[in-house]
Known about the structure:
Oligomer: homodimer
Distance between the termini of chain A: 62 Å
CATH topology of the largest domain in chain A: Rossmann fold
Order of helices and strands of chain A: HHHHEHEHEHEEHEHEHEHEHEHEEH
Largest interface: A-B, 48 and 47 residues
Strand content of chain A: 15-25%
Shape of chain A: elongated
Largest sheet of chain A: 6 strands, parallel
Structural class of chain A: alpha/beta
Amino acid sequence: MTIYDVAEKSGVSIATVSRILNGGKNVSEKTRQKVLAVIEEEGYTPNIFARGLGLDSIQMVGLLCTDVADAYYAKAVSILENELHQKGFDVLLYCTGNRPEDKKKSLQMLLEKRVDAVILIGSAFREETDNSHLEQAAKQVPLFIINGLAEFPGVTCVACDEHGAVMQNVAELYKQGRRRILYLYDALTYSGFQKLDGYRDGLQSCGLPWDEALAVRVEKSLWDAKRAVFELLEEGIAFDAVMASEDLLAAGAQKALQQKEITLPIIGFNNSLIAECATPSLTSVDNMLDTLCPYTVGLLLRLLKGGEAPNKTVVSAKLVERETFQLSEDKKEETT
Amino acid sequence: MTIYDVAEKSGVSIATVSRILNGGKNVSEKTRQKVLAVIEEEGYTPNIFARGLGLDSIQMVGLLCTDVADAYYAKAVSILENELHQKGFDVLLYCTGNRPEDKKKSLQMLLEKRVDAVILIGSAFREETDNSHLEQAAKQVPLFIINGLAEFPGVTCVACDEHGAVMQNVAELYKQGRRRILYLYDALTYSGFQKLDGYRDGLQSCGLPWDEALAVRVEKSLWDAKRAVFELLEEGIAFDAVMASEDLLAAGAQKALQQKEITLPIIGFNNSLIAECATPSLTSVDNMLDTLCPYTVGLLLRLLKGGEAPNKTVVSAKLVERETFQLSEDKKEETT
DNA sequence: CATTGTTTTGTAAGCCCTTACAATTTTAGA
DNA sequence: TCTAAAATTGTAAGGGCTTACAAAACAATG
């Protein structure tokens, strides 16, 4: 069943059918009804490839992330997918893992699929790393980066201020008398660096010294985080608060502390289910995906329609207080 | 840059270029090299739509699930995406939520994209529900269902024996002297029914009575599960073990019990991070996605190559023991 | 060297749409 | 009723690829 069949059965030309199919102007109501009836009756569906050939687009956007099995990316993908489908776009999903060359290859493959836009979720590298593939890609297609940064023409970045969030957490812990704050982190993605820098800058602005031993890199795993913290405790390295670049790591730290029957303030990151489920529940920084993702899709649509969009947007993060740490009262009033 | 340009620059015809592009037989090594060089040099990429028009396929498979933000689906999508990309297929992702009409519509849209196959993750309804859309779809394209069931020609089901797993858990709890086993469950998807039936059948085969009050339906939320269990405790409804259709619910139950300072065996389902992170960590049933998903992709490839595949495969689930429940010793030996 | 069989290459016909432009019909105004 | 303008419809030219089939080049055989 092709457009020719429909045209024939309704006694019009293919051009008319095509116009109707494309929300066509310049078609009389009478013929529209007639053709629509035939289409309905025959169950005709336009061939997406032929249409793509003609229009050079089949309304698809590519989503590139590190790993959808991870709650953070899963949440982003989920929101983006919803928004995009609502706006009539299909979603091509690529999970690349953390190897730069895989990311590059995936981006390339996405472009070969002639998507209308690409959204990277937290997958840009730091400035000093080679981001030339992003620069190249952005020449072919609008490129969006959520929680990452790449300042090339054609690239639109939307991020939450992770650096600032961590700094504030340090400041708040300091205000509550904490002087030796442990920081657990895993991969040094762009976002990973942001947070680590936030930690460092936070210490500095409180006048606290940088102590190598208190910034600990671990695998992204509950057990490795637990092991690391446990070892610190065994070695007698003192600390009086814990922050982590990920709820999972915070949960690991919590397990180690519990085993030693120590209670300290703990602040996680990403405000995931894990933070809720932990006992006691973990205070955590919300990365604002609920805001960032729909906003990004909004920019995307605007850009595809030929409009303009700010090439960099940063919103501040939000601390979600649970049992492992609460803001002091004066701070709260300030926020209200 | 089209195939015509490449042909011209290498002094051959487009047919030859096309042959080379398609892993062509019947091309002399000399011309192959020549053409490949031009392609490389010019950075030519075939137009995917034109190719699709000719071949009626651009090597895409559609993935349909309820919600990627949920760890269970996220894991499945992650594994499937990986396998499929490895085999050269692109992945079109649809998250439908739980409304049947949305699932139908998404399936329809997927078919319009002329995917080569569709994989549903846990999204079939129970037999008595209207599954005619699946029947229709299966006529157009190979359809795979992971952890769901629909016995129509063209539909391939791959599942883990959730019913059996729950039954066994009941039996094991019974063996350890538990007589009033609470079962928490949420949505009655196909898989939800499987587990609920497993609970009922498990009780029966142990000679335990079915007690309406012990099969509690809750929202898929930590807090609702906690609330429900807390209320039971307040009302004085006695139970001596907890099972849940989802780790999240088990974690909620655990919180309620902890608040009342009660310790009972708890068995979750899905073997997610939440089970690991809970304190004490939750024993949980692994749904075997690690096996099911690659296996499904294997069948898919075989089918697309014109081969045959069993239209129903069931593997047994696996209990992952953690702190909230351990199998008795004799049982363990049995398993070894 | 002629003949037949194999490889390699080219020509041209699809595949199914969109859309510029031409042709026709309708409407409005005089 | 006639003419000009507007609305509607049709014709035909792409869009870039695959592939059946025809043609040409090459190899092997007697």
